């Protein structure tokens, strides 16, 4: 543990800071993360015993296409449960969203530790500079650090795969097999596609015997399946009222494997061409780092102890890599000598991942999260190539640079001239001695691995100077890759911040309802009955219906209020919110039964078409005979698209003007018009994201008021269409 903490570098801490910043900037979750997020909330805030209490859990109402394991949510809830247990109620915020941020911090810390172990193992196996290059490449990309804190089953499995690869690089095959088996049995059954080529490699290299592999694989995999069945059978099957003929035991990943492979029903969520991972997913996530992949085959420089790149624990390269194969010589027509290649990164890293991607390409339904385990391994291949370019240049980034200090991978002119002079003198002396001993003129020996790559493969002729210059400064390719990968990062971040309209809409609903000086609220609360509060007043209950699109783009139980929010420090009348995600209700039924709707844009436009007006809403008759008037209170932006460069420049000027006017308490009219032009009349300050991406109104916060306060609406909590209303009090 001490050595692990002692090896943490500044780049490691910078990566952790980037992960935490993404959590803060994009706090909401999408539908793919819904199960783990909702299950973690239910474990934290709802009782798990007796089995009948599981009826209030979210997965009983919305089970999803396939079941998932509760081990991830349970492990996430344990540390947060300790924090909430000692947190006094007076310090609780209005909503539970900070707890959701805490859940994502726990996930991010776990993945950061796993990636740190992977980096340390890579540095021990391929040199310390390789570990630094790996972190630089990871920091320059957007998708991998962004998803390291997401509550996806793929993210949990990625942590175990990183630990497995770290064990493989540390030459610990038993630990590697353990992590792969548990990742497959508990979180993602498709990890077995990556595990098979790795296990075959261990067998061929005789790190494991076949009998050991079968015994340990059965032991570790069986233990993981047993733990999954033990926990998930209780949460998914216990306490159900209906009599089902299904088996009381459940292994979720077994169901997922049958669903995706045998039934092939994942195609119901869309199909992509077979080359989608190579043509779309990898270019978006890795950007320009594949340019460094071929360089990972270069042979490392062999230098004496203390003068060159060293292996793990200070041993020389020959001692550190004694189990590696002999480098292969490949003749190339444009080089005077065959190029020596090292196939270790190809066999250990690239080929298993390439086979994993090829086999996964047979499934029609494709998503980026399915290939998460491939991203850090491919980044490691690029990092190895970058580090070996610097090593072969003569710089000592992995070891010691000039004058015993870390170098930048570029030799000074004086150093190169000195090396050439000493080499020339040594070659001439050796030639003269050989000629005297044999009585004939010998050709000078070819340079060894201790020389620079340019001098080793190119003659010093004028025609070779351009190629010599390019090879001598080839390590700059790594910095060009990092720089070019950083350029689109603001675009990705701007699109991500505008990609959760459901969570943004729920936050705006709470800000609207619980505003201290909201005159609109009184017109809503008077239509509902309440119960006697602590101070003798009545509690107000507001009903909100959450549409399908809102539920898929950021709404979760963590976004709900803790309990009733009182206007006088919790005394007297308070406000409670009853949330509902009922499905199968018509628009008219929702307008009659709820005070607010988070509806899609098409539904809001349908209301305006019914009334024959463009800006106002429509009227429906409530159950008590009252006339209910519905109107759009606020539009919520979504569906980000990249702007054209001229529009970005125009929006940049508008954003600068809005910042200037915002200091005086008002917004520029020009920026207000730009925001209202394509957003259904939305009027709000322009954010920095709007300079880069263009959005449109996808959700509408609709308020339904009673025009004539004649009667009270009956309280209606019965189930409709398979859903159930839930009161957040």
TrEMBL record:
Membrane-crossing segments per the record: 6-25, 70-87, 99-118, 154-170, 177-204, 210-231, 346-363, 369-387
Functional summary from the UniProt entry: Mannosyltransferase that operates in the biosynthetic pathway of dolichol-linked oligosaccharides, the glycan precursors employed in protein asparagine (N)-glycosylation. The assembly of dolichol-linked oligosaccharides begins on the cytosolic side of the endoplasmic reticulum membrane and finishes in its lumen. The sequential addition of sugars to dolichol pyrophosphate produces dolichol-linked oligosaccharides containing fourteen sugars, including two GlcNAcs, nine mannoses and three glucoses.
One Gene Ontology biological process: protein N-linked glycosylation
Record-given protein name: Mannosyltransferase
Bilayer topology: Multi-pass membrane protein
Chain intervals with Gly residues compositional bias: 397-407
Short name of any one Pfam family annotated for the protein: Glyco_transf_22
Domain of life: Eukaryota
Subcellular compartments: Endoplasmic reticulum membrane
Pathway connected to this protein: Protein modification; protein glycosylation
A single MF term (Gene Ontology): dol-P-Man:Man(7)GlcNAc(2)-PP-Dol alpha-1,6-mannosyltransferase activity
Catalytic activity, as annotated: an alpha-D-Man-(1->2)-alpha-D-Man-(1->2)-alpha-D-Man-(1->3)-[alpha-D-Man-(1->2)-alpha-D-Man-(1->3)-alpha-D-Man-(1->6)]-beta-D-Man-(1->4)-beta-D-GlcNAc-(1->4)-alpha-D-GlcNAc-diphospho-di-trans,poly-cis-dolichol + a di-trans,poly-cis-dolichyl beta-D-mannosyl phosphate = an alpha-D-Man-(1->2)-alpha-D-Man-(1->2)-alpha-D-Man-(1->3)-[alpha-D-Man-(1->2)-alpha-D-Man-(1->3)-[alpha-D-Man-(1->6)]-alpha-D-Man-(1->6)]-beta-D-Man-(1->4)-beta-D-GlcNAc-(1->4)-alpha-D-GlcNAc-diphospho-di-trans,poly-cis-dolichol + a di-trans,poly-cis-dolichyl phosphate + H(+)
EC annotation from Swiss-Prot or TrEMBL: 2.4.1.-
Biased composition (Basic and acidic residues): 605-617, 719-729
Composition skew (Basic residues), residue ranges: 415-424
Stretches for region Disordered: 394-450, 605-625, 710-729
Keywords in alphabetical order: Endoplasmic reticulum, Glycosyltransferase, Membrane, Transferase, Transmembrane, Transmembrane helix
GO cellular component: endoplasmic reticulum membrane
InterPro entries found in the cross-reference section: GPI_mannosylTrfase
Keyword Membrane listed: yes
Family (UniProt): Belongs to the glycosyltransferase 22 family.
